[in-house]
Amino acid sequence: MHPEMNVVEPVAETCCAGKSGDVLPVDIAGAKAIAAAVPVTGIERVPLIEAVGRISASDTVSTISLPAFDNSAMDGYAVRTKDFAGSGPWRIPVSGRIPAGNGSGRRFPPASAVRIFTGAPVPKGFDAVVMQENCKRSGNTVTFSLKPGTGQNIRRAGEDLENGAAAVPAGTSLTPARIALLAAIGTEAVEVRRKVKVGLISTGTELREPGQPLGPGQIYNSNRYFLRSSLKRPWGEIYDFGIVPDDPETIRVAVREASETCDVVITTGGVSAGEEDHMMDVLRRENAELEVLKVAMRPGKPVTVGKIDGALFFGLPGNPFAAAVTFSQIALPAIKLTAGMKSVDTSWMPAVSGFSYRRKPGRTEYVPVAWGGRDTDGRPIVEMLGRGSSASLSPMAVAMATAVLPPDMANIEPGMPLRIEPFCE
Ligand code: AMP
Ligand code: MG
Fold this sequence. Notes:
By secondary structure, the chain is α/β, with parallel strands linked by helices. The chain folds into three domains: 1-38 and 199-425, MoaB/Mog-like domain (Molybdenum Cofactor Biosythetic Enzyme, Chain A, 3-Layer(aba) Sandwich); 43-66 and 166-193, Molybdopterin biosynthesis moea protein, domain 2 (Alpha-Beta Complex); 71-155, Beta Complex (Molybdopterin biosynthesis moeA protein, domain 3), CATH 2.170.190.11. The protein contains seven helices and 27 strands. It has helices spanning 26-36, 176-184, 223-230, 248-261, 279-285, 320-338, 394-398; strands at residues 23-24, 43-47, 60-61, 71-72, 76-79, 90-98, 113-116, 128-131, 135-138, 141-144, 154-155, 166-168, 189-193, 196-203, 207-208, 219-220, 236-244, 264-268, 289-295, 297-298, 302-308, 311-316, 349-353, 364-374, 380-384, 401-405, 417-421. It has a seven-stranded mixed beta sheet with strand order 1-19-21-22-18-14-17, sandwiched between helices. It has a six-stranded mixed beta sheet with strand order 8-5-7-6-10-9, with no helix packed on it. Strands 23-25-24-26-27 form a five-stranded mixed barrel. Strand 24 (364-374) and strand 25 form a beta hairpin. Helix 1 packs across helix 6 (320-338) and helix 4 crosses helix 5. Magnesium ion is lined by residues 203-204, 246, 269-270, 276, 318.
């Protein structure tokens, strides 16, 4: 690829799509979307086993200690360290045997050791476990050559989680690990937010669905498939309003129906300033509180963010890569907050450029990248895929991540540190 081919125009101050002439940095645009997000209020109680990926609606406080009792971390012998006076080896009689699952409160005679297994309760008065590999059993006695330390190989009651502590706070995505913790404290069912209802409308007279024949000038609707796939989340429910042609009244009816049914409405296409881009006119008639954001991002073009009938609204560009990037960067974080998540983090990673790219500063640019190798610090050495065209699908299909080029970064050279973000996996 020839680097000059990637030189972009300066920020499009002349773009006339917005109400105001301001061009917003991406993070401000994202913050506006987040500010408009209101978490759904409905709560459902679901069996723990069905709760993966749902958003917790309340704090789950543990009513037991974890572990619930002091127990052995090893197969071996429970001992009292005070029995190890002077210098070893020490021969101590074995006075009993405690397998896991045995809750006996049995007492054992002084100066004795107890055969014990991993997870079995450590008997009262015993303050160390010696692993079986470090002792020698013969008949009814066991010989130790090393003096055990107090507390050695004992998992103390409450060391994992104290009784009364919050195991999982409200507003958290229930990952497999959190589900396991909830199970360990005996949670049978968990309160989660109801699923957020997301309405999708694909605008464009030229659009056809896969499976249909293409007429002249027609294209397949790929944005619908991208968005439906990206939104297939345990916390969401998709309401697909299909393809709507570029006819203002048809768009108005579809948007109205979607906003009455859903918590979030996403449209693609029709948000530019072209004669066939009706979205803004239509939405103004719906008394929507909307703002066209001219975001200093590439790809991106105008993105509409706002509210209609209490539904959060995103008007995304029609170009597939632009729709994908604006969805991931601006819409998705706000949708996650609507679903009830307390916070959303970008999970960027450090990488190193393996390419040269000359660009004019001013916009945050999202570049599809892939890598085959890493530098000595383990950072991926990334190569740019394609020319970053907002209409291209192949580079994003091949991409392992997107590199985020900040507005002030002009020329990129091999070896320069870059940030990469996972791309809608
Ligand atoms: P628009 O934002 O309506 O001006 O559309 C910009 C470009 O994206 C045009 O080339 C459209 O044909 C294309 N486009 C719009 N919607 C979709 C879609 N759902 N899937 C694929 N391409 C689309
Ligand atoms: Mg269009």
